[in-house]
Each structure stands twice: as structure tokens, then as C-alpha cells.
Amino acid sequence: MNIHRRLCRWHGLGWDALLLLARVCLGATFWMSGQTKVEGWQLTASALYLFQEEYRLPLLDPAVAAGAAAIAEHLLPLLLLLGLGTRFAAAGLLAMTLVIQLWVYPSAWPTHGTWAVALLLLIGQGGGRLTLDHLIRRYWQQSRGDSANQCTSHADPELCMRAPQ
Fold first, then answer.
1. Would you call 29 exposed, middle or buried from its count of C-beta atoms within 10 A (0-12, 13-18, 19+)?
2. Quick one: which of 10, 112, 128, 134 could link to 101 by a disulfide (CB 3.0–4.6 Å)?
């Protein structure tokens, strides 16, 4: 294996590690927030109170908003952690982040900006090779006999196009 191919492989592993770190950190952040809203399978009284008195989202009933937030803050981080529908999950969490930034805590823009950057990275690059998405894609390609371009599932397909195969 020549040096160029080895460097490309290490570069790809670095991207995969970065994407995994983004998925784990964001997933944990939103999961823990979701845990504060529920007790067992029920919304907590404090979560309902916050949505009624402090958050006051426009156009949404506070009970509906609290329930939707609790479901989203459990489902979407789980999808992120598994790497299943990574772009979809990241887009959902980005939408939540924008709502939080615009209507709930506008002064917390440095935190929300950090979340947004990592979520945009996941939307743009996908979850990388350390995901269920990648395993499913590989299985699907192998079952169809479509193994001509192995680079389509990497974190940086352009790099693989430039690298000699």
C-alpha cells in the first residue's frame, strides 16, 4: 500500500471519528434534556410548567409542545447515536435548536451556535462509516452486486475520487 492511499485511509478515519464524536456529544446533550421532561412515560409537571410559563412558544399548545419536545429529544438522539437516518435526525435537532434560539433562550447563541455547527456538519457529511446507515448501504450494494464505487459511503467521497484506487 503506497503512502498516498495510507494517508487517505487515515484522513477518512479522522473524519469518521469526528462525526462519531459529534453524534455522541449532541445525542447526549439532547437526550439528557429530554430526560428532564419525563418521569417514566409521563411528562413531568415541571416540564409542562416551563412550556406554559417560561417558554411560551407561539402557535403551539404548551402540552403539545412539551410532549413533542420530549419525544424528539429521545428519538432523534437515539437515531444519531445509532447512525440511523443521521441527516434526518440532525435536521430535526437543528430545527429544535433554531426554535430554542429564536423563542426560548435568544441570549444563549454561543451554545446554540456550537450545536448548529456540529448538526450542519452531520447534515452535510452524514454520519460517516461508523453508523448503521453505512452498514445498511454496504449490505444493499453487496446484495445488488453494485461494488464498483466503494467510496460513496466514506465521509469524504471527493477525497476518494482524487485518490488512486
1. middle
2. 112
- In 3-state terms, what secondary structure has residue 37? coil
**Look-up: residue for cell 416551563?**
50
Q: Left (φ > 0), alpha (ψ -120 to 50) or beta: where does 35 sit? A: alpha
Q: State which H helix or E strand residue 43 sits in.
A: strand 42-43
In the three-class reduction of DSSP (H, G, I as helix; E, B as strand; rest coil), residue 42 is classed as strand
pLDDT in tens, 16-62: 999 999 999 999 999 999 999 999 999 999 999 999 999 999 889 99
Bridge partners (DSSP) of residue 39 are 42
Alpha helices (H) along 36-52: 45-49
Joined grid coordinates for residue 108: 444563549
pTM of the full predicted structure? Answer: 0.82
Helix or strand holding residue 3 (H, E): helix 3-35
**Which conformational region is residue 149 in: left (phi greater than 0), alpha (psi within -120 to 50 degrees), or beta?**
beta
- Helix or strand (DSSP H, E) at 31: helix 3-35
How far lies 78's CA from each of 29, 58, 136, 140, in Å?
11, 28, 17, 23
Cα gap 16→125, rounded to integer Å: 10
Polymer length of the chain? 165
| Cell 445525542, residue located | 27
